[in-house]
Amino acid sequence: MEPNHLNENLKSILQKSNHLNHLKQLQSLLTTLGHSQTHFYAFKLLRFCSISLSNLHYARLIFNHLTSPNIYLYTAMITAYASHPHTHSNAIDLYRNMLRQSSPKPDQFIYPHVLKSCMGPRGTDLVHAQILKSGFGQYPVVETALVDSYSRSLGNVGSARKVFDEMSERNVVSFTAMVSGYARAGDLENAVRLFGEMPERDVLSWNALISGCTQNGFSYEGIKLFRKMVVVGLEERYRCIKPDKVTLICALSACGDKGMLQLGKWIHGYVYKNGFVVDSLLANALVDMYGKCGSLKQARKVFEMNPDKGLTSWNSMINSFALHGQSDCAIAMFEEMMKVGSDVRPDEITFVGLLNACTHGGLVEKGYYYFEMMVQEFKLEPQISHYGCLIDLLGRAGRFDEAMEVIRGMSMEPDEIIWGSLLNGCKVYGRTELAEFAAKKLVEIDPHNGSYGAMLAKVYREIGKWDEVRNLGRTLKEQKSYKIPGCSWVEP
């Protein structure tokens, strides 16, 4: 068969194929024709298997069958591994294997995918050394990948900035990588400053800063940036700067965190006016926003309109009902979810919502039931949040002996949530001795938190331990521990 004719046939068959058996038949045909080791055809099969079929295991079998894969095949296989978080280690192992064999040599196109797979600064440092050794340290695409890789390592944003400052050529992609790194690390000041220095900005750079704000608790700042982005997009020269799906999801998350229902509704209208397809991601963001803002009727309406209800959607509704004290509705939603079948299986977040619902409804036995269900039926390891909900439930019911028994049986050290929940229950029921014990634990965990010191001082005053009140006051003053003043939020 003529090469051109074979190429056309191969392309046509792959476009129509959607099953691994089709690929195997085509592979057999190529072997029969003597092309089992032809790099061009192996590359086509490997890419189809890893991208269209998402079968990395069989893609690797194709790769392993080749006696001398070239750099393009290595890049294709490493790229496939790098595209899935759970196979990053496979990408690094394959890269190391290529280096050991000394053939083929790495090029500038393989390094970004290797760097994407690095886990921690040590791995990035090793690849960086290899990049410098191989002479690709001045290639912009490699430098940008280094900035991104370093900035993804917690606490290593300084190394990312060093690479960024030494770059031979900076563009909107490299600036965005650095802005994203600062935002991811919670360094909003530097992120905003560098964003302001960008010679040009695109939607991705706006998203990097907005998502960084919302993911690090700077929701109000994220909302201000979103509003600014919308206004900028109205200018003729910036028509291409318009919020996309990622922007809207981040903005909706910020609205939910701050209870900004009116802006959330405006964003919902913006979605429809601008022709966005309300897929499961947008639907989940809308449900979460409406639920956190207390508009449960609207949250339920969006939820019901979503044809592809995944676990995230169910969890949002369960937690929304629980958050606003509608325990019966939260439990009914969970029971409805369980009737869906094996397609939706509850996770740790589901049970946090259920336990919160039981807490607000005073349903102690029901809370015990769901806690046991989580462990026994679904084999989920209880987290500190689950124990916190259970202690809060028992404390509100005045069942302190049971609460202490749960604390003693925990698989991890009790944290501030645990002791704070116990303390709140003790104050309601006047259990001053246990309240003193819980308050002391809080001070031990964070001795510089003036709020905890104030709690303990209040307990001492209630039981008449005035010497302890004075001693504690002196200690807090020496440590410069101050109580953080309370504040409220009103939507502008």
How many individual helices?
28
Order of helices and strands: HHHHHHHHHHHHHHHHHHHHHHHHHHHH
Ranges with pLDDT <50 over ≥5 residues? 484-490
Main sheet characteristics: none
Report the helical percentage: over 70%
Organism: Crotalaria pallida
PPR repeats: 171-205, 310-344
Keywords: Repeat
GO molecular function: RNA binding
Would you kindly provide a written description of the structure presented here, covering whatever features stand out?
Helix 25 (416-429) packs antiparallel against helix 26. The chain has helices at residues 3-16, 20-32, 39-52, 56-65, 71-82, 88-101, 111-116, 121-134, 140-152, 157-165, 172-184, 188-197, 203-215, 219-232, 245-258, 261-273, 280-292, 296-305, 311-323, 327-338, 348-361, 364-377, 384-396, 400-408, 416-429, 432-445, 450-462, 466-478. The model is unreliable at 484-490 (pLDDT under 50). It is built from 28 helices and no strands. The radius of gyration is 28 Å and the shape is globular. With 492 residues, it is an all-alpha fold.
Features:
single chain, 492 residues, mainly alpha, 0% strand, disordered C terminus, repeat, PPR_At4g14850-like_plant, PPR_rpt, Pentatricopeptide repeat protein, TPR-like_helical_dom_sf
Brief rundown of the structure:
With 492 residues, this protein is mainly α.
Topology:
Elements: H1 3-16, H2 20-32, H3 39-52, H4 56-65, H5 71-82, H6 88-101, H7 111-116, H8 121-134, H9 140-152, H10 157-165, H11 172-184, H12 188-197, H13 203-215, H14 219-232, H15 245-258, H16 261-273, H17 280-292, H18 296-305, H19 311-323, H20 327-338, H21 348-361, H22 364-377, H23 384-396, H24 400-408, H25 416-429, H26 432-445, H27 450-462, H28 466-478
